[in-house]
Amino acid sequence: MSNSIDQATLVDLIGHMKSCLSQPERGVSDTLEWLRDLSCCDGIILCQARHPSASPIRHLVSHDYPQEWIQMYLAQGFSRIDPVIRYAYVALDIYSWKEAYEHFGDCGQTKFLDMAAGYGLHAGFACSYAQEHSGVITVCSINVDSNVLQSVAQWALSNVMPALHTATSCIRQHKSIRPLTARELEVLKWSSEGKTVWEIGVILNLSEGTVKFHLNNIYRKLNVSNRAQAIAAAAYQGLICF
Q: Which residues of 182-221 are buried (b: 16+ CB within 10 A; e: fewer)?
């Protein structure tokens, strides 16, 4: 163990690893909060996806990441072009966002990077973990504007990733996240505010039939059967916030 790691941090690490394995959903959330405080970052997010890198994200947990950005990211399927996610399949363990950007060059990603920067996501680090032949990779990304990740945070992140990977794999999914279109997100947002089909139609200048069409698509993608279930599933997956 590095001399820079004190006993209290080691005890915390062991405690969070145990929590992840015994109470996956709560353990993952608490561990991310601990890592956020340890790294003094602006936000931290954990996602899990199946190989290859073009597959959609199947689970996501965040602390202090802009909710509007997360909604757009999922709806537009940005995981297919996100350099930080794509680089995870090349360089396991810890790497900087800068490394990922430089590895892929431009590759038509300038607009995506500019959009991310617009939400304060300029620089950071990520850590990826995958068990051999599992077909699933877990990525934890940390938004650190200073572009410096303290050694204690790197140590903690690297060592806790196997537990985060296992816990996230165990969390019961509604179903793999399927991207919602911008219009579907609008319909879902107004539904979550209690608007009727008619009211949503007036607000969005759509016919009631078109609103119902979008709602049915939402139900299918979220694997639910009504609006209440759709709102609950969307809130759980970070597609909407209250």
A: ebbbbbbbbbbeebebeebbeeeebeeebbeebbebbbeb
Architecture of domain 182-236: Orthogonal Bundle (1.10)
Residue range(s) in the chain whose domain bears CATH number 3.30.450.80: 7-170
Q: What is the pLDDT, as a whole number, of residue 175?
A: 42
Measure Cα distances from 94 to 12, 74, 121, 203, 206 in Å.
Answer: 20, 24, 18, 46, 47
Cα 230 from chain centroid (whole Å): 19
Residue type, 100: A
Tell the burial category of 114 from Cβ atoms under 10 Å away from its Cβ (0-12, 13-18, 19+).
exposed
What is the average pLDDT score of the chain?
84
> What is the reported pTM?
0.70
What would the two tokens of residue 191 be? 């539904």
pLDDT value of residue 81: 86
